[in-house]
Amino acid sequence: MDRLKRVVLGEQGLVILFLLALAIVSVTVPNFMTQRNILGLLQSVVTIGIVACTMMLCLASRDFDLSVGSTVAFSGMIAVMVSNHTESIGLGLLAALLAGVVVGAVNGVVIARLRINALITTLATMQIVRGLALISSDGRAVGVDDPAYFDIAQTDLFGVPVPIIVMALAFLLFGFVLNRTVFGRNTLAIGGNPDASRLAGVNVGTIRIWIFTLQGLACAVAGILLSSRITSGQPNAAQGLELSVISACVLGGVSLAGGRAAISGVLVGVLIMGIAENVMNLMNIQAFYQYVVRGVILLLAVLLDNLRTRSTGRRV
Question: pTM surpassing 0.85?
Answer without folding.
Answer: yes
